[in-house]
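Posting this for the archive.
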Amino acid sequence: MARAIAAGKSDQGRVRKTNDDAFRIYHEDVASAGRGFLFAVADGIGTYRAGGQAAWMAVDQLSLYFRLPREMFEGQKTFEDLLFKANDAITNLRTQQQGYYGMGCTLTALLVDPRFTLGILYQVGDSMAYLLRRRKLVPITTPHKEEGGKGLSNHLGLGDQLRVDRSRMQLELGDTLLLCTDGVCGYLQPSEMEKLLLDSDEPRDAAEALVAASVDRGDDNCTAIVVRITA
């Protein structure tokens, strides 16, 4: 039977005064729930503190997927409802509370079935997911960027304008998945990320190496989750 080994790492970087990234790994501690596993990264945008608050609101809201009582649980629909509730909560703060103007966040989330054979990806914004299979790294999400690549065309906090990309993928033994904010994928080339993943024996080593390289290269918050499907 397959299982997953996962680890995450986040760093505010050398320039930013705060870390507006957030990540969550709902893994071994929720295995008994029988609802699968969740890996999520978010990158806050907006005014001081508001971006980071939005990112944590998003990833923490998704934890309810594992805590809702059985009679209220509807599988994938439950997860998607929670995602849109996070969007609504962020939108309300953004529009109704002084000091939260421009508040929002990206979100890249991977929901995996209990047998680790099927993954469902949810993509909002320009954080990214990649698949390393048979020693080749390929992107499996598409960033939501404005024409010219200078800004986001989509993020949590847009109210009714939010759009969520969903995709399903079959998982195989030996697969490694990388979820990261643009502080990583915006500064490291895919070939560099591929090498760091291949050179690392454990997901924790890989996540730390990816973030360390990103801190050296860029000026943004850096966050990575590495998930390895193994026997």
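Residues 3-230 form a domain with the Phosphatase 2c; domain 1 fold (CATH 3.60.40.10). Residues 50 and 98 are 11 Å apart (CA to CA).
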